[in-house]
Specification:
CATH architecture of the domain at 297-360: Roll
Cofactor: Mg(2+)
CATH class of the domain at 297-360: Alpha Beta
Protein name: Ribosome-binding ATPase YchF
Bound molecules: guanosine-5'-diphosphate
InterPro entries: ATPase_YchF/OLA1 (IPR004396), Beta-grasp_dom_sf (IPR012675), G_OBG (IPR031167), GTP-bd (IPR006073), P-loop_NTPase (IPR027417), TGS (IPR004095), TGS-like (IPR012676), TGS-like_dom_sf (IPR023192)
Shape: globular
CATH superfamily of the domain at 297-360: Beta-grasp domain
Structural class: alpha/beta
CATH topology of the domain at 297-360: Ubiquitin-like (UB roll)
Largest sheet: 6 strands, mixed
Pfam family, one: YchF-GTPase_C
Helix content: 40-55%
Function: ATPase that binds to both the 70S ribosome and the 50S ribosomal subunit in a nucleotide-independent manner.
Radius of gyration: 23 Å
Length: about 350
């Protein structure tokens, strides 16, 4: 499963957010692809379309799709030189597919700030510098190897050496790799380095209950994210933490009191899901209505493979109905009668929300 790592300076609210995200007790047997590790949380992806499908199919159960979040604590200034818990944590970030960068945008004198005053831009810079330094080390080693290989090598070795020299220069200025303008070929070449600052980033602004509007700290973070073409999601982690512990009925009341339709966490989860380049397709039957995750661009056999590798190997065809058609036409039968249920082959690329049924040989 793809996972997002949660980073940020100490005391900005990472653990509070992680605990809120993972408070939902979800039956692990539904998610055999997910990791069992205390720092890794398996989090259901909220999706109102599941209920709409269930209203038509009346299944025995509804199973949302899930994604993984990792709490990466211990990142402080000097981590790249082994300060704090240093390198171990950098290694954890390397294994993630995207980064959620939590920044503190609330003032509370009872919560100590590791660097003195509250200043989200400085905080973000401290973390970015550490991550860029860690990547710089990686890039220097890769460059030295590549330069040797280029002496005796061909075109590809020379292209690689040139790229890695450019990477070293870029990172040496403390700039994240994602901010650079690289060709697709060069991105491919960099992939094997697992560079941390090449991963997509979502900023999570941890604000106070009243800090969603007229909050200059949040505004400065938004301006920074805009420059980078990144997104900001504002949440109040403390409030989300309290809410996550409530029973469903109490949660609904709590939200209504705040004038909200859903927990702020849902926005974080969905934004992280998009950041990872993921999309959802559905299966719908009397046993279960279920959401499954594939990468954007996945083919029908790859989608079948998410359910079971046998489905991918023996793939024959997929019956596909767009979500809007399925719901609008009252389900599979209606879609079929209206000619909206399609038979698709191996080359078909899955669309967001497709309702699918696979035919396969075993
Ligand atoms: P971490 O070190 O980044 O994991 O930070 P924690 O999640 O442990 O939070 C640090 C402190 O900030 C704890 O005392 C939290 O209760 C508090 N905190 C977290 N989120 C909020 C928030 O939204 N508002 C306020 N006022 N305090 C918060």
């Amino acid at each position: 499963a793809l996972r997002a790592g949660i980073v940020g300076l100490p005391n900005v609210g990472k653990s509070t957010l992680f605990n809120a995200l993972t408070a939902a007790d979800i039956p692990a047997e539904n998610y055999p692809f997910c990791t069992i590790d205390p720092n890794v949380g398996v989090v259901p992806v909220p999706d109102p379309r599941l209920q709409a499908l269930a209203d038509i199919v009346n299944p025995a159960k509804i199973v949302p799709t899930a994604m993984e979040f990792v709490d990466i604590a211990g990142l402080v200034a000097g981590a790249a030189q082994g300060e704090g818990l240093g390198n171990k944590f950098l290694a954890h970030i390397r294994e993630t597919d995207a980064v959620l960068h939590v920044a503190r945008c609330f003032v509370d004198d009872d919560v100590t700030h590791v660097a003195g005053a509250v200043d989200p831009l400085r905080d973000v810079d401290i973390i970015d510098t550490e991550l860029a330094l860690a990547d710089l080390e990686t890039a220097i080693r890769a460059r030295d190897r590549a330069l040797k290989a280029a002496k005796a090598g061909g075109k590809e070795e020379i292209a690689r050496a040139k790229l890695y020299e450019a990477l070293v220069a870029h990172l040496d200025e403390g700039r994240p790799v994602r901010a650079g303008d690289w060709s697709e070929a060069d991105r491919q070449r960099m992939y094997e380095l697992h560079l941390i600052t090449a991963k997509p980033v979502l900023y999570v602004a941890n604000v106070d209950e009243n800090g969603f509007e007229n909050n200059p700290l949040l505004d400065t973070l938004r301006a920074r994210a805009d420059e980078e073409g990144a997104q900001v999601v504002a949440v109040c982690a403390a409030l989300e933490g309290e809410m996550a512990l409530l029973e469903e009925a109490d949660k609904a009341e709590f939200l209504a009191d705040l004038g909200l339709e859903e927990p702020g966490l849902n926005r974080v989860i969905r934004a992280a899901y998009r950041l990872l380049g993921l999309q959802t397709y559905f299966t719908a039957g009397p046993k279960e209505v279920r959401a499954w995750t594939v990468r954007i661009g996945a083919t029908a056999p790859q989608a079948a493979g998410v359910i079971h590798t046998d489905f991918e190997r023996g793939f024959i065809r997929a019956e596909v109905t767009a979500y809007d058609d399925y719901v609008g036409l009252g389900g599979e039968q209606g879609a079929k009668e209206a000619g909206r249920l399609r038979l698709e082959g191996k080359e078909y690329r899955v669309n967001e929300g497709d309702v699918m049924h696979f035919r396969f040989n075993v």
